[in-house]
Structure formats: C-alpha cells, structure tokens
Design a protein that fits this description.
8-stranded parallel beta barrel; 355 residues; single chain; alpha/beta; 10 strands; two-stranded antiparallel ribbon
Length: 355
C-alpha cells in the first residue's frame, strides 16, 4: 500500500479513510469497536467522524476503541463542527463561541488531548470567515488541533479561506471533504483543480453513491432493507434517482463482466482520480469493511477509466450528492418552497443533515 500526503502537510495517510457515520446508527457499539480495530489492522490510519454523528456517540465509540487497543498514536482522528449540538441559538454554526465549545466537547468524548484534523462540516456565511479561522487558529496554537479543513463547501469559499489565512497569518485549510463518485463528478469542474492549485488534499465522501454503484437497487423496486434510504429517508432518499439506479446497475454489470466486485471498483475509481487524497468508506460491520480493504492495493485500469467516462462524462452529474449543501441554489429554492408550504423554520435542527 502506498500512503499519500495529506495536502501540502508532511503527514501521510492511507488511500482509504474509515468513515463512522454508521456507528451507533445502526452499527452496535461492540461491532463498531471491532470494525475500528480491523480497519487499523488492515492499514487504514485516518478515521473520520463528526460531533453530529449519532449525537456524539460515534466519537465516544472511537475513543473507547482506541483506549482498548492502545493505538491512538497509530491513527489520525478527523472530526467536524457546525451542526446543532443543542437547542440554544449559539449551539450551531461556525462562530468562535460554538467552535471552541464544540472542540472541547469532542475531545472529552474521544478521550484524547488533540484531534488531528478539525473540519468545518459546512460553511457558515453568516459568520465572518476571519472569526471562524481565528478560532481554529487558536485551537491549533493551543495544541488541541493539529490541522484544519472544510467540508462540502463551494470552491470559491475554500479558496477564500486559503487567501484569508495567508493574508491574516492564520492556520490554513489543508483539506476539503466533499461528495464525489461516478454518479456525481462535479468536483472535477472547479473544486479539484482549485485544491490542486492551492495544495489541499481532498477526502471524498459517498464513493459508493448510496450503494447505487454496487448494484444494490432495482428499477422501480423499494429500497433494500437496512439501507440508509429505507432507514433514514430524507436527504438520503433524494439522492437515489431512477437515472442513478440505471447507471449504477450498468456500472455494476460492467464490473462483474470483468470479474470485479462492483463496490470495490466504485471506490477504486474515486481513489485513483487526479486530486483525490482518499475516499471515505462507511461500512456497517466488519464483514463489509474486510470486503473493501483490497481497494488499498488496487489500481484502476485505463480501459475501465475510459468505460466509466462513457457512462458518466467527467464533470457531469446523474444523481446529486450536494443536496445537503444549503448553499446550492436549487436547494435554497426547494427548501424555501417546502418551508413556506409547511410553515417550518429552515434554520431548525430538523433541517440539519449529518452527511
């Protein structure tokens, strides 16, 4: 396995990241701990979580797993801040007040003295960027955070963050975490070139496209039991479209014709795209994790890259995975319509997705 540099830092990370949105929801605690142990044993050295995953329970499980195996120094912990942690008006967003409080709480749940990568789960356009970056800079200088990053932000905002940090002498984003898979390749238009230009690593979430690229959905059939679509609905169900299912099944058939596992190939496709540091995998159990570990050593053949480009041309989209990004114009319009019709406050915690 060849480790990859995390942005322009000196840190090396595995070409797969263990995502933990499933911990405690639905993955039971004991199975989650075994999964973390197996991931580390398999060579994964970056674990991604958030204070919003299972209301912080994901962080607690990670902390317990690392305490059990004593391998805290063998892994990098990445967590996030932004979404509501309470009912108060300051229990959310990217203000200094919320960031400092949220970081302290994450450290306690994880049982660690520092996190290696602290990410803004979403941009907050109502808070001055200087305030947000100043708070993150203070956390870095206090030793509670090693590096900072953003997640699911527009390319212009990431670049603005880099420029603001350089102008003000503040800690600088080293990563951007965004959705990227064969069904939604829009990152190739602006974000990936911007990150390559400014030396940011890119961590890609949802490389399996909600399982569509693994061939788990049938045209017109109900979502499979145990899937996020069936269990959670909402933003997850929005992503699974008839067009996405159709293309996903064609991709899965192509993989099987070549004797390859569709899930492995879908993740390998993301892993080997220019500008991608690592895809984030989100297994629900040890068996799923073990089934994906071979991707660490896989290389995407050129003829399969060309076949993928024929299915979904570079930079295009079949199913939108930016539907949890409130800054997307179409999402803003649809949410305003929904909120007017249902008389719901669009800033309420009920509208806060975790992924």
């Amino acid at each position: 396995m060849e480790y990859r540099r995390l942005g322009r830092t000196g840190v090396l990370v595995s070409p797969l990241v263990l995502g933990t949105d499933n911990l405690a929801n639905p993955t039971p605690r004991d199975e989650g701990i075994r999964m973390i142990h197996a991931a580390i044993d398999g060579g994964i050295n970056l674990i991604d979580t958030s204070n919003s995953y299972a209301a912080g329970e994901s962080e607690r499980i990670i902390g317990e797993a690392l305490e059990q195996n004593g391998r805290r120094d063998d892994v990098l912990i990445a967590t996030k801040v932004h979404y509501p942690t309470g009912t108060g008006p300051n229990d959310r967003g990217n203000s200094r007040l919320h960031i400092i409080r949220a970081c302290e709480d994450s450290l306690k749940r994880l049982g660690v003295e520092h996190v290696d990568l602290y990410q803004l789960h979403r941009p907050d356009f109502d808070t001055p960027l200087e305030e947000t970056l100043g708070a993150l800079d203070d956390l870095v200088h206090s030793g509670k955070v090693r590096y900072i990053g953003s997640s699911t932000a527009p390319a212009w905002h990431v670049v603005e963050g880099v420029m603001t940090s350089e102008r003000r002498g503040l800690a600088r984003f080293v990563t951007e975490q965004s959705p990227f898979n064969l069904l939604d390749r829009r990152l190739e238009n602006e974000m990936l070139p911007a990150c390559q230009r400014h030396g940011l690593g890119v961590l890609a979430w949802s490389p399996l496209a909600m399982g569509m690229l693994a061939g788990r959905y049938s045209d017109g059939a109900p979502a499979p039991a145990g899937s996020r679509v069936a269990d959670r609905g909402g933003i997850y169900a929005e992503r699974v479209t008839p067009a996405g299912v159709a293309v996903g099944n064609r991709f899965a058939a192509m993989a099987r014709e070549r004797g390859l596992d569709p899930a492995q190939l879908a993740i390998c496709f993301v892993k080997d795209q220019p500008g991608i540091t690592a895809p984030i995998i989100g297994p629900k159990n040890v068996a799923q994790l073990v089934g994906l570990l071979p991707v660490l050593d896989m290389i995407l053949p050129e003829e399969i890259q060309l076949a993928c480009d024929e299915l979904v041309p570079p930079g295009s989209v079949v199913a939108s995975f930016f539907n949890s990004a409130p800054w997307m114009r179409w999402k803003q319009l649809s949410r305003v319509t929904d909120d007017v019709e249902s008389n719901v406050d669009p800033t309420s915690a009920a509208h806060a997705p975790t992924r």
